[in-house]
Amino acid sequence: MTKMKMMITAAALALSAGAANAAVYYATDVVNYSKGSCAPASCTGPRYNKMNALGAPDEKFTSLGMGGSITLGFGTSFSGQNKVTGYEITYSAGTPDNTHLEAVDVYSVMGGVATLLGRITNVGGTVKSVMSYLPFEHIKLVDVTRAEFPGTTSFDGFDVDAVAIAAVPLPAAGLMLLGGLGGFAALRRRKKAA
Questions:
Q1: Distance (Å, rounded) from C-alpha 62 to C-alpha 57?
Q2: What's the pTM value of the predicted model, to 2 decimals?
Q3: The predicted structure's pLDDT at residue 91
Q4: Strand partners, 25
Q5: How far is CA 62 from CA 5, 35, 47, 118, 185, in A?
Q6: Cα–Cα distance between 173 and 23 in angstroms, integer?
Q7: 39: CB partners within 8 A, 6+ apart
Q8: SS3 for 53?
Q9: pLDDT for res 30
Q10: Long-range contacts of 1-4 (CB under 8 A, 24+ apart)
């Protein structure tokens, strides 16, 4: 095996191994928390403890209140393609008639500028993801329960258990294809030189 082929193979293996072990980051700090409205009750008690939104999913949660928001930090900034996953706690896993519906808009925040990534709801499950293709420092969640579900039985909006960020790596096959194309280019140059 030539030195060039060995270098290409080693690079492809190293990149594919790195892609397989992508880290998952959970929120480490609350940058801002603004409670919305809660009816018929007031927005007090342990379900409004903003610190419950930090860390991995643990079934402790922070209710945003109708129209409320929370901005979370992760101890680092992100670039490239990232999957942003929200973990929501739904009252009794949804009421039997499925009327306890909740929704939140997810924004990436860089330098104080928020960019909408998408909307997630608790319909069909409480773990949902959106993609980010821009660099960001924070993630902001804004409750839009009433706008998305006017007839909901929710009284205090989206309940945040956790938010996770995971880089979406280029698939290993794609990395190997790039390595192979680089090898062909090197061989072509070698032929032209000879």
A1: 12
A2: 0.76
A3: 62
A4: 165
A5: 53, 10, 5, 20, 54
A6: 20
A7: 66, 155
A8: helix
A9: 97
A10: 4/183, 4/186, 4/187
Q: In the chain, which residues have pLDDT < 50?
A: 6, 13, 16-20, 94, 96
Tell me the H-state helices in 116-171: 145-148
Cα–Cα distance for residue pair 61/106, rounded to 1 Å: 17
How do residues 76-119 score in pLDDT, each as one tens digit?
A: 999 989 999 999 987 655 454 578 899 999 999 999 999 999 99
Which residue blocks in 35-194 are alpha helix, DSSP H? Answer: 145-148, 172-193
Q: Beta 159-167 vs 69-78: how paired, if at all?
A: unpaired
- Burial letters 75-107, b for 16+ CB under 10 A, else e: eeebeeebebbbbbbbeeebeeeeebbbbbbbb
- Starting at the edge strand that comes first in sequence, how are the strands of the sheet with 29-34 ordered? 29-34, 69-78, 136-143, 103-110, 113-121
Query: What is the distance, to the nearest Å, from the Cα of residue 74 to the centroid of all Cα atoms in its chain?
Result: 11
| Residue type at 49 in one-letter notation | N
| Helix or strand run (H / E) with residue 23 | none
What one-letter code names the amino acid at 157? G
Per-residue confidence (pLDDT) for residue 180, from 0 to 100: 67
Q: Is 59 helix (H, G, I), strand (E, B) or coil?
A: coil
Number of Cα atoms under 13 Å in the Cβ half of residue 94: 12
